[in-house]
Specification:
It is built from six helices and ten strands. The chain has 217 residues and is of the alpha/beta class. Helix 1 packs across helix 2 and helix 3 packs across helix 6.
Length: 217
Amino acid sequence: MLLLALDTATPAVTVALHDGRDVIASSSQVDARRHGELLLPAIDRVLAEAGLKLDAVTGIAVGIGPGPYTGLRVGLMTAETFGLALGVPVHGVCTLDALAYAADLQGPFVVATDARRKEVYWARYTDSRTRVGDPAVDRPADIAEQVEGLPAVGAGALLYPDTFPKAHEPEHVSAAALARLAAERLAAGGDLPEPRPLYLRRPDAQVPKNYKVVTPK
């Protein structure tokens, strides 16, 4: 097995290769405005580090968010395109799950990423592999009672210490953790979700009011 893992649901553009035993190469860059520019060079760099060509890949794992519309679709479209071109399966992995896996905490905790608009994407976990319920998007103050006293990881938690006083790293997701989690689930015979985006809300860009559609006669 050679699993190509990537995620662009957070400001991190992150890529990794997993050979069925462990991660053999990885790359992460944090730049919220350059997902489309940085992703393909990162894939090339990781393949070169491993001394492999793209056609050696037998499967792809991609972070499905939740995340902002523009960044998230860069990773998903790239994964789907590579999957079609190579004829290999594409597996979705919740980005919050990969962060939880990287945190490697025991006992209840929270993962929260920055959703902008003074909100966070978040979910609760009983351990590093088990999420409680579906991811959500909320203002930190609105969920303070639900997360009170719990450790928290992720950029969203670090941004709002009043709600998440026990927040710590990892700040952003890593494809290395995503690859290990996906490989573990695949080896155990578990089902991974379809690579469909978890947007949770409408994109920031909106059609202006009173917009007139001009069509040729």
